[in-house]
Amino acid sequence: MATYAHRWADGTVSVCSAKNRNEAMMLFDQIDGVSRKLIIRLKAPILFTVKADLDRRWVLDVHEPLGEDLSNELEERCYPNYDKTLSQCAMDSKMGTYSENDLKRLAKALQQDEAEAEKRLKSVFPTLDIVAMFPRGLPGQEN
Fold first, then answer.
1. Environment class of 95 (CB within 10 Å of its CB; exposed 0-12, middle 13-18, buried 19+)
2. In angstroms, how far is CA 68 from the centroid of its own chain?
3. What pLDDT, on a 0 to 100 scale, did the predictor assign at position 143?
4. Do the bridges between strand 57-60 and strand 39-42 make them parallel or antiparallel, or are there none, so unpaired?
5. Which of 54, 72, 86, 132 stands 20 to 30 A from 22 (CA)?
6. What is the pLDDT of residue 124?
């Protein structure tokens, strides 16, 4: 199984494992309508930790990262401007502290990523990619 990601309009990113892009699209569609063109195939495997929660069944353990490889690839692929700026700021910083200028640069880079994502979302039809889900036509049709 491969790892797939989709960056939503609000900036959140969903990740799933699926046999192919079509299956990933059906999984992401459980959250909201998605276009197959906006699904990103990742190289990193999924790694996360869950903990039992009696009210909500299983929840992510917020103290555990998703795995270093996946975290790095999500930053690279879903927030490229922010990732590049963060790397530059990290090299320039002293003992891991960021200056006021660094924080402004990071905020600007994040805004650029958000603006680019909005452009991509506007250029893609926001509903299900019916052709990908039903390449031989809708069920019941004689195509």
1. exposed
2. 15
3. 41
4. unpaired
5. 72
6. 67
- Long-range CB pairs of 117-123, under 8 A, 24+ apart, other chains included: 117/7, 117/9, 117/11, 118/9, 120/38, 121/9, 121/38
Residue type, 56: R
Residue found by looking up tokens 């990290």 in the block: 90
Q: Is 134 exposed, middle or buried (0-12, 13-18, 19+ CB in 10 A)?
A: middle
Q: Helical H runs in the chain?
A: 21-28, 68-78, 80-92, 100-123, 130-133
Gyration radius (Cα) of the chain, Å = 18
Assess contact for 78 and 12: CB atoms under 8 A. no
pLDDT at residue number 24:
92
Q: Which residues of the chain have pLDDT under 70?
A: 53-54, 56, 60-66, 95-96, 124-143
